[in-house]
């Protein structure tokens, strides 16, 4: 058992002493659960012999200050003396108390009579040669701890209690920073001291010394020194056995947790079937895809997916079939590399080659053939976890100490997972692993303890009862003297013993067969029965444990023998020469399938042969089809038409008296070839007739330029640019934009053409009124983008593009606008210029140009304004009005451009009515 597991087991048992209801069976159950898990459930203790169960192995002391004493003890000690034993009392009967060690209460601990010479002498230095703990990973955080207790009857206070200082070399970030701890008084139980540090070197020195030099008290015991790396994450290892036979459900899956928080609470299997287990063993499994998970004490889960249990290949035989009497057939089998044997019931004298994979037989009656093969062994996968040590120090347990670096002096009863024995311990030969020479193996510095009963390797796997298994391993010596002698036991019983080679680096394989009997588990243990300290060093690799069971394969196929049937068919009537002859039926009237030869020929009378499909028990038969001559229908030609013109139906009787039908349907849009198919029963051939359909031409004309209203307009041409003649409608109109339609004359394949002549017909009106105190004329055109010219008594007064004119004199005013070269005019006679009396604006143009944007009555005392549309509906009303109306309704919506009727009520004069023009474009 590894030191780590042994430590937890001892602690478990010691703690359980206070529970009266627990018994040995509970401890035993717990022990075997520990055995089932790998040796690195927890981070590996990197200190050799931290529990002192192996005496002084794994550390040194400063020999100047401390001296080792051994049994028998005299009952009196001197300052600086120490011993590795299980009770302080025998060392100093007068002054030491009697206590058990921290681990189990019966094991060893280190007892120290405190020195009085100097406080910097180390009583414990890690490493067999004091070279520290090596193989650490720089940057990782490690935890060092120990348990301590005062053992003197004279210790009373801090002045007499041991003060233990811990020194770390090659480390940083030590916590707690204060590395001094006080040994607890005897009345207090063991006390744990713990530090963490970060490794700055692959080798870290750890040393302990006592700074109290008081000769009174100052005596203590120390036990269970542990150095662990970062916590090991929970993982899961699996192995499996496939089902033994193609249709059996006897596969197994073994799941083993590693790392995480022990104990594991459950293992869960899912997939082709579901189950839970406390041990991780699942049996009676059918073929399929599984996944298995382990849950640890902190409810963390680790899962292994796609564990595929594959049954061995079954025999594959040809399908049962039916043959005709007198025919032969071929049997077939595959799926095994072993010998095949065919038998027949009833006996068949034509089975002359019963060991063939494809024998040909010719049975005279229905016969069942059985083929068997020699036994097969389907399970070639090793059931062991990490049998080649590729996963490192996991999947097994042992009684040896796992050492990353045994130092210069080596360590008996130690092992490592290495690629080179020499790199692990330099006196060893440079032996490499068995697999490739560059991968892992396990190397041992042989045990000298326990008379050869220390376990070198052990693992438990599930097994099927009453089956043979083969366990094999490879061994080599790494030192040539005193080769190891490896004995293998299964469930405590020896299955074989053999010597390692006498020469170094020479791999030798040993194999043993074991029968499971009634067992469902196999605990495989390897011992080195040599316990001499000189030599006795070896390596193991590629351990394997495989099932030897076999499975007999057998399959059957039945050949049914029938008497042949004569197919029957309905005789077809004679057909016309060249007529399509329907395919002859592939199934006879009495249900026989087959094919006809030769191919159908509609030009001559032929006898056809029907051959039944292979496998149908039927004979050939013959059928004759008679061919008669045919007549070709004739028709008169059809005149060409224009596309879209009416097309008379084609005659359904030819000029030579053949009736039939035409395809495709008539189409008056394109030239088409029509096929005439004579009515069934007429020995006539198909004939074809083409009806030409000429496409329509679109007449083309030059466009007509835009004119002003009243300008002369030339007659439109009666012939198009592409030669189409015709007439125009309606008559020409030089005052209004008009669409004209050209209709081609009859007899021409042409379409109607449209032509538009645009007539520009602008108009303008004038509104007059006061804007503030100015009498202003405003031109309101019907078109956009126009120019303006103003005249007084036919004399131009303003030819700028302005739509407003301030009038200073009475007279006749005219405005002339020009829109795209066409003119229009309006005249306004001004007879009064007095703008001091209310002159209501005649127009509003709310376009944000700051001119007439509002209906401005702000110079008058208006008590109310009402606006009506041309239908007499009131759209706007405002009391105490000034200049708020911008062409919107009472609801705030924009009103359309138009002339509106207003009613204005004044505070100091009569009501006034009139029309106002709303135009947002000016």
From TrEMBL:
Stored Gene3D superfamilies: 2.60.40.1220, Galactose-binding domain-like
Pfam families, alphabetized: CHU_C
Record carries keyword Membrane: yes
InterPro entries: Cu-Rt/internalin_Ig-like, Ig-like_dom, T9SS_type_B
TM stretches of this protein: 24-42
Domain of life of the source: Bacteria
Protein name: Gliding motility-associated C-terminal domain-containing protein
Origin species: Flavobacterium myungsuense
């Amino acid at each position: 058992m590894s030191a780590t597991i042994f430590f937890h087991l001892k602690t478990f048992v010691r703690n359980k002493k206070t529970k009266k209801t627990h018994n040995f069976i509970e401890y035993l159950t717990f022990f075997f659960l520990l055995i089932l898990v790998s040796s690195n459930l927890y981070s590996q203790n990197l200190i050799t012999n931290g529990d002192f169960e192996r005496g002084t192995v794994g550390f040194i002391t400063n020999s100047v200050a401390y001296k080792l004493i051994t049994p028998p003890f005299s009952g009196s000690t001197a300052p600086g003396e120490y011993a590795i034993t299980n009770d302080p009392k025998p060392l100093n009967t007068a002054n030491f108390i009697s206590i058990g060690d921290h681990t189990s209460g019966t094991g060893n601990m280190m007892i120290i009579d405190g020195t009085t010479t100097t406080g910097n002498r180390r009583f414990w230095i890690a490493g067999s040669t004091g070279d520290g703990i090596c193989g650490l990973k720089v940057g990782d955080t490690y935890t060092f701890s120990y348990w301590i207790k005062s053992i003197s009857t004279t210790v009373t206070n801090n002045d007499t209690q041991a003060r233990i200082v811990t020194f770390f070399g090659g480390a940083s970030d030590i916590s707690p920073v204060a590395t001094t701890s006080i040994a607890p008084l005897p009345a207090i139980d063991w006390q744990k001291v713990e530090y963490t540090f970060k490794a700055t070197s692959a080798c870290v020195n750890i040393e302990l010394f006592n700074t109290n030099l008081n000769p009174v008290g100052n005596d203590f015991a120390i036990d269970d020194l542990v150095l662990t790396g970062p916590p090991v994450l929970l993982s899961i290892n699996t192995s499996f056995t496939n089902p033994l036979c193609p249709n059996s459900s006897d596969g197994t899956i073994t799941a083993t947790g590693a790392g995480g928080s022990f104990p594991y609470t459950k293992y869960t299997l899912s997939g082709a079937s579901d189950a839970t287990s406390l041990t991780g063993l699942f049996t009676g499994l059918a073929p399929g895809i599984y996944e298995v998970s382990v849950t640890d004490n902190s409810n963390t889960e680790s899962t292994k997916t796609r564990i595929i249990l594959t049954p061995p290949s079954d025999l594959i035989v040809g399908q049962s079939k039916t043959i005709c009497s007198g025919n032969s057939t071929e049997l077939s089998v595959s799926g095994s590399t072993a010998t095949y044997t065919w038998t027949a019931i009833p006996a068949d004298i034509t089975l002359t080659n019963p060991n063939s994979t494809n024998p040909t037989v010719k049975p005279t009656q229905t016969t069942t053939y059985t083929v068997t093969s020699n036994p097969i062994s389907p399970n070639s996968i090793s059931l062991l976890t990490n049998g080649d040590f590729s996963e490192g120090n996991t999947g097994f347990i042992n009684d040896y100490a796992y050492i990353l670096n045994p130092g210069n002096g080596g360590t008996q009863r130690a092992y490592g997972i290495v690629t080179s024995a020499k790199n692990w311990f330099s006196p060893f030969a440079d032996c490499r692993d068995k697999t490739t020479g560059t991968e892992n193996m396990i190397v041992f510095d042989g045990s000298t303890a326990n008379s050869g009963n220390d376990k070198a390797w052990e693992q438990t796997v599930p097994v099927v009862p009453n089956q043979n298994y083969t366990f094999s391993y490879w061994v080599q010596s790494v030192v040539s003297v005193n080769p190891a002698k490896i004995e293998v036991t299964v469930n405590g019983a020896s299955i074989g013993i053999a010597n390692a080679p006498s020469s170094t680096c020479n791999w030798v394989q040993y194999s043993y067969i074991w029968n499971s009997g009634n067992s469902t588990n196999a605990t495989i243990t390897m011992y080195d029965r040599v316990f001499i300290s000189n030599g006795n060093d070896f390596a193991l690799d590629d351990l394997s444990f495989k099932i030897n069971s076999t499975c007999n394969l057998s399959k059957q196929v039945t050949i049914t023998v029938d008497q042949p049937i004569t197919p029957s068919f309905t005789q077809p009537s004679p057909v016309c020469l060249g007529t399509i002859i329907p395919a002859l039926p592939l199934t006879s009237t009495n249900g026989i399938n087959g094919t006809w030869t030769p191919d159908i020929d509609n030009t001559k009378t032929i006898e056809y042969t029907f051959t039944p499909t292979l496998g149908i028990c039927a004979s050939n038969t013959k059928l004759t089809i008679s061919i008669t001559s045919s007549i070709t229908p004739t028709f008169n030609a059809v005149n060409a038409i224009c596309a879209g013109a009416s097309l008379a139906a084609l005659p359904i009787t030819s000029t030579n008296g053949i009736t039939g039908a035409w395809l495709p349907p008539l189409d008056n849009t394109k030239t088409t070839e029509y096929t005439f198919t004579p009515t069934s029963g007429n020995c006539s051939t198909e004939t074809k007739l083409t009806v030409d359909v000429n496409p329509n031409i679109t007449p083309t004309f030059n466009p007509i330029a835009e004119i002003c209203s009243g300008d002369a307009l030339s007659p439109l041409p009666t012939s198009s640019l592409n030669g189409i003649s015709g007439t125009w409608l309606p008559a020409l109109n030089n005052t209004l934009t008009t669409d004209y339609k050209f209709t081609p004359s009859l007899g021409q394949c042409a379409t109607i053409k449209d032509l538009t002549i645009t007539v520009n017909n602008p108009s303008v009106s004038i509104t007059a009124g006061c804007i503030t105190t100015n009498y202003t004329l405003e031109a309101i055109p019907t078109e956009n983008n126009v120019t303006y010219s103003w005249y007084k008594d036919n004399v131009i007064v303003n030819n700028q593009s302005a739509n407003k004119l301030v009038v200073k004199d009475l007279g006749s005013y005219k405005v002339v606008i020009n829109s795209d070269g066409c003119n229009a005019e309006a005249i306004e006679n001004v007879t009064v210029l007095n703008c001091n009396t209310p002159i209501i604006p005649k127009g509003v143009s709310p376009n944000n140009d700051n001119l007439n944007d509002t209906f401005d009555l702000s110079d008058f005392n208006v008590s109310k304004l009402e606006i009506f549309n041309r239908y007499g509906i009131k759209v706007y009303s405002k009391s105490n009005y000034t200049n708020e109306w911008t062409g919107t309704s009472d609801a705030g919506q924009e009103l359309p451009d138009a002339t509106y009727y207003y009613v204005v009520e004044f505070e100091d004069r009569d009501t006034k009515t009139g029309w106002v023009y709303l135009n947002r474009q000016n």
